[in-house]
Structures
1.
Amino acid sequence: MSDHDSIVEPVAKLEDNVNKRAGHVAVSHRGRALVWGGYMENQVDNDQYWSSGEVWLYNSLTHTWSSHRTHGDIPSKCSGAAATVMEDTMYVVAGFHKIVVSIKSLREGASAHENSDHGSDSSDSEDDGSGPMVSSVEISNSIWSLDLNSYSWTKLEPGGDPPLRCDKTACWTFDDKVYLFGGFGPPPASTQLDKLGTLFQFCEDPTTTSGYGSYTRGWSNQLVAYNSASNKWEWPVCTGQAPSPRAAHSVSVVGSMAYVFGGRHLDTRLNDLHCLDLVTLKWSLVVADTDALNVPVGRSWQTMTPIHTGKEEGGLVMYGGFDNNLTALGDCWRMDLNQQPSGWVRCSHLELGPRLWHAAVGLDTSQVMIVGGLTNNILAPSFVAKHHAEKVLFLRVSPPSLLKLCLEYITKHRDLFNKEVEELPLSLKRIVKIRCSSGA
């Protein structure tokens, strides 16, 4: 890794690069957190999208952030995409993308997705020979892969029937497949309905179907899988009752089970919890949508993260979101999946302030990291400033390892251990010195 490819600086100096974004993705890879994409509110004259040509990496041992430039088929800048990791590859799918189209294309009435490719982060002023170019947006159903060793992007071109175009979707991996569920976007084409219409539902958003320049969109409950072995899209045939169409929901995988929580459907933000057995492809309802006081209120734009509980069944931790009263939430809930019947338990000691459209990463068995997001009403009128998060949150969900405890103690009492640190093995000494120099 060359010096110009990666920059490591103190946490306090670099955190704004991950805090002041929403609609981004965050994933875990070999003890690190990776943050990519998203946008920043309150940008009147400047581009509101974060660079898609770099990823931000957090090392939980050294407690430092670094930025890394990427190359290859860099996706266009976007928000609302979904991401997941399979071995040493991050997959990014769908999203609301900033693209570049020619004025000629717009005048001819062609839609953005028919006249543009997903260019690189720096392609905003490229000319394809069709005359002057202008910025536009599109809702995507494309998929990219990022090699996490070489940091090279590849835009994949799978066979089969692609997903519906959408953003605010969720994805995950199981075996050699990348699954995508739900999302908000334009309606399916008639050919898609004829071929696949029995496998999903689509519900139009009535606020998008009329008026000047209307662009019909809605919610779906599509379940689509990218098979990395065959490079094809697949539409699994499931049994049981699938969740209703939704977007801005959460998905967590524990073992061979995928859990789907909440999200928005029409004017309602839900609090139901569904489970998909990824071996048998059978849906089941875990917790129905309810007004009961002992469950999280209905919400969208929350995070839900799988956690280790010491039991084979594992557990879930949910944080924040946006409720039906248009309030940014800061509550935290935990579910231990070994308990029957399954139920949510509120964790007031982990509640560190409101967040919505943030991202969450399980750093190790002891910590969940909450990254970015907004802290007030995202749907408020444009004259109301939207407030981004000011710091990364760390939720301690179980006791840390002895190594982590020792690093924390030595860093806090560094003056007491100067001699002992010099006698540590080289790799461990480097970790301690980086933590101390970064102000961790």
2.
Amino acid sequence: LLTKFDTISSGINAEYGEFKGNLLGYFPCAESKDEKSHARSVLTEIYIHLLGLVSLLDNNRINDAIPCAQELINRVMSVNKPTMHSLGARCFFYYSRAFEMAGRLHEARTLLHGRLRTSTLRHDTEGQAMLLNLLLRNYIHYNLYEQAEKLISKTTFPENANNNESARYLFYLGKIKATQLDYSEAFKNLNQAIRKAPQNAAIGFKQAATKLLVVVQLLLGEVPERHIFRDQHLREPLQPYLQLTQAVLAGDLAKFSSVLEKYSDKFMRAGTLTLINRLRHNVIKTGIKSVALSYSRISLADVAEKLQLDSPEDAEYIIAKAIHDGVIEATIDHDKGYMQSNDSANVYGTNEPLKAYHERIRFCLDIHNHSIKAMRFPPKSYNDNLEDAQKQREREQQDLEYAKEIAEEEDDGML
């Protein structure tokens, strides 16, 4: 069958000059005697058609792939069988992929919305998870984060979806939350996405998720763990992010600007440039914190020079905001133009340890809850070894009679 498919796919242009979008005519279905054999033949047709679409995409024949994808989806939508759920979800993935490669991803949005509604009504879990992820990818591709947030708020991702789709959904959700300044929720979702991803595969997905996770951690004011940058598959792709982390931790605005200028193209391709631009304030805040710890009193002009700010007035404004946010404990003398640092308080006398323990406990509870939800059991296997009520009563009656016989034998022996 595959040999025949390769021969046909290679000879399409030679015979017709242009692909017309229908591979099904090459594989006619034999008339089935019963419904089951007919369903198998339909699945075979759709599977062969899907192979044709994948072949066109692999050979970068985008103009031929679009009509092929449209014909395939029309065939899939004409079949309403539970056995089509898994294969149908895969067909919609390559349908969206064909439009994305052609630069016409927005044209697929209406059909995907309609099919998501249909999959929800038919309880098609695999199709529902796939279509929801495709729509989120569609919106994010065009930076339509508000529409993506509305879609998430009005839909429910199926809990029993496979781990691959769950990981993709959590990744898109983390990216949306990070763009909307909800960094804590974004950090949680990205962590879960990396855990749900395949351990020995999906290297590209884990690289993209880890890049976004590092930036979100820096925006939260946290330090990414060093072992992330030492991983065999992440060491080279995360090299720009390691330099970025070092600049942020040192509060070195010049180094931060240099790294941003040097790797701006890579950051843009990864979709993290917008978030990295927000880190400039974090770099300045770290620098102010370092200055406040190093000097008990320092002029605003010296602060502006150390942080490479434009003027002492800018330094005064940034220091005032840092004091208001609780980053440093200091006072500003506007008339004399200097900053006076206060004695640092004992952190264990504040609520900070309580907050840290609370975050860790919540993190562990979330892992436990998601592990419970991810457990899988064979369907209806829980009652295979259970007795029905009648058999249980008979067994109990036999045990009771046996006990009475033993008691009577013991009484006879004593007599």
3.
Amino acid sequence: MVINVDGDQPWDDVAKEDSRINIVTNFPVFLHPASARETMEIFSLQDLSLDQALRHFLTNVKLVGETEARQRVVDLFVLRYIECNPKTIYTRESANAVVSALLILNSDLYSQHRPFRPRDLEGFLQGLREIPACAALPDEDLRLLFLSVKKEQLPVAGKAEDGEFYRPCDTVDDKGAICKSGFLFRKSCCEVGGVDTRWGRRGWKRVFVVLTQMALECFKNEPVNDSDATAINSVPLHHGYVTPAKDYRKRPLVFRLRAIDESMALFRAVNEDEFVSWLHAINHTAASNSATVSLPVGSQTMSKKRQPNTNIRPLYASRKSGLSLVEQVEELKINEARLIHEIQTLNTEEPASRRELLEMSAQLDFFNRELERTKIYLVALGGK
């Protein structure tokens, strides 16, 4: 069974509107939201712990679509669980938060498309403690929920015939397995080569973003077959990185992607969890798969006659790194130390001419940008 709940309001509010619930079993059946509670009565969740009830629910209902759509279905489950267990310690808000945390943990532990390390117990508890609605929940109860998911994967309804679980967009192409996908809003700032995007093309657009090991691809809609697999924008991910766009104040939850081809774009997430998740996923994937860089240092950054050298950028290999995670971290630490040394040296040197001042300024900009990228990679890989 697949339940799609249309609309952006909470479930109780949706029932007052004209939008509908689409419940798909063997054929489409449409019901008015006012019938939602009656529909959920097929699930008997009495005297079940939260994880047991969730397993029972997910055995019959497959969560599909983007985050908002999944969250509305989770909220539907939470309301039914509280209705069946009126003496439960969970409120609607706290149960929604805990179930969402369990689903993320399950994905981190078992999905082949999530390359970064899952949270440990302390990280799981700390994340929930930061949510006011969960502050009073006993740590022991949360610990048991964590161990339940870690011991056994949550079920997925709609199992493929070969026994593997899948989503339509989770495929493997020549650029590597998908690491994360979902809807974001995108705003182009600079085209390839660092050229400013024309004013008529700078507006925010909703796109379906697919993060692979070596590229970030944007589609108009979620691709469900080969005919939909043409990206409207594809950005090389190697040696790229994202940072929160703190200087952009018009909209919240915005991060900036800087690509190696000097293009730059802003992306806006739908909520804080997605914002943090995309930041970590992109930086971790780029840090894990970007080949190490041989930086131009010392006399390599100046021409023999100490004249401006426009070729201070190294060649960035587009191939996937062949180093292990430990080796990758060690190489990044070496580059970090080298960059710090070069920056300190340039800051202490006195330029002999205006041209040399411009050259040194360009070098400092480049080295500072590389140092920023290196530090972000180290954080993403757990090296700091």
4.
Amino acid sequence: MEPPNDLNITAAALEKAADWSRDLLGRGKEVEDNALKACMEAAEAPCADWSCQLQDEILNLAYDRCGEVTGEYAKTFYLGTKLMTPEKQRAIWAIYVWCRRTDELVDGPNASRVTPKALERWDERLQSVFAGEPYDVLDAALSHTLSEFPISIQPFRDMVDGMRMDLVKSRYKNFDELYEYCYRVAGTVALMTVPVMGIDENFEGDKEKVYHAALSLGLANQLTNILRDVGEDVTRGRIYLPVDDLKRYGIQEEEVVKGLVDPATGKVDDRWKEFMKFQIARARDIFKESEKGINALHVDARWPVWSALVVYREILDAIEANDYDNFTKRAYVP
């Protein structure tokens, strides 16, 4: 998103953020692989110590609030977490709430006032959470989760960097560039939650493949979000569709901004339909890849993941049912 002119962002801060973005573009796979390695190493290490002086009653209320937020914004997934052990479900809620609060920095009601400096402060606050020094009770829930499950800080850092991308980048030249963004804002969630969900104790295969399958689910979910929200994202000045894919179907950026639906007839441009068919097929292929790892998860974690996969994949069906109109219609699953 191009920052509005009225933001209190200095030219130097924007240039620093832009330099950061240029340095990382094209390194999406490398960033993801480094985080995966860090998470697998953390999974074999002891959990963090819980030294925060917080009454159990207050901590329980914090977890309860995390559950309420998860239930409000991710109802199907929340219902799935109820099949987990109490320890696992509240840990997932705490992670979800941190992710949502992070996303709200650039997409929430105060997004227009968020600066690169604000994201630096959020990064520092994350460091404090992992150091056992939470800023508020919701942070305390996550900090306590780290004492119960072996979670790496790296995917959390990477997600904050995904928010930085939204401050300085509103177009993606190709799928490789988009892949990095999708990892940072969605694949990271997979790496955060696999240690909580756990891998089945009877699984004898390569655990790295389980993590890769989880990353595929994050990627497929985010691609689905992007395809569903094209019209909404355009109003924010963002186009998350690969530019080279658009050109391949003879579509110009200006046409996406205007919307490829005839306002008089409601007819969707045939070029857009073909473009969307290609994008949906790619997302479905990635969903298929993600299926390979679900049954390797601990048995009490499988249903929540399957439910999330099924619901998100059905959004693609809903886009088709809307005749590929994601400019004036929003695809949703009842």
